Amino acid sequence: MKLPIFIADAFTAQAFRGNPAAVCLLEIKLDEDMHQKIAREMNLSETAFIRKLHPTDSFTQSSCFGLRWFTPASEVPLCGHATLASAAVLFHKIKNVNSTLTFVTLSGELKARKVEDGIVLDLPLYPAHYQDIHEVKDLIKTAIGDTMIQDIRYSPDTRKLLVRLSDAYDRSFLENLKVSTQDLLQIENTGKVRGLILTLKGEPGGQTQAFDFYSRYFAPWVGVSEDPVTGSAHTVLSSYWSQELGKKEMRAFQCSSRGGELAISLRPDGRVDIRGGAAVVLEGTLTA
Asked: Where is the signal peptide (predicted)?
């Protein structure tokens, strides 16, 4: 078996920043367990598998494909950065002739549109509801100790817990915060939480570029200790910060060691456009 495979860094214009994802192009149907084996071998936060929906489809000519995402540990229902990486491979390496691609996924149909300064993903927008701190205080204490908290929300659609840090903190505090993830699986093992978002209100531009909000994302429940830049987390963050700031257009920065920028636009149809760049850093053939 020989499969074309790529690695693309998403939500960045520069190689070795943003969030890397492996992208596999499937000319043939894979044995079901092979997806997970390949994802484990690639050992990135996500490996994406693009498949043709009909035997006559072409990766260069067709505009609609199936798409699945796997962490090294499990399949996930939504991954923004691996969708961006998949679109970048099709647009820039395979030279797909269409300006918009549609991916059929576990989260419905997702569209990726090629624009002058990147790729725009049309993603679901997920509301986050008030969360009683007493139900999650052990989880939060384990993760971030005595760090001051401003707000806690929960997204039942994505099973992500959003923890907003106090406005007294700045970006450097979030970047340098030591987050303990190794014990979270013992603290929260009910299945309610599958991802932890830490977020902070942005700062006005001065010497540095202005961002509306910052975040970091942790998902040890699916085998990802910290994810560098997370599109799916921003389907929740976009909803939350749009309400908090009264804005439909926002710029976000995910403060991992690699870092990544996202341009956010809430749509009239209740979804969200998230724009980012991508750099393809590796292409080859997987043999098995």
From this structure: none
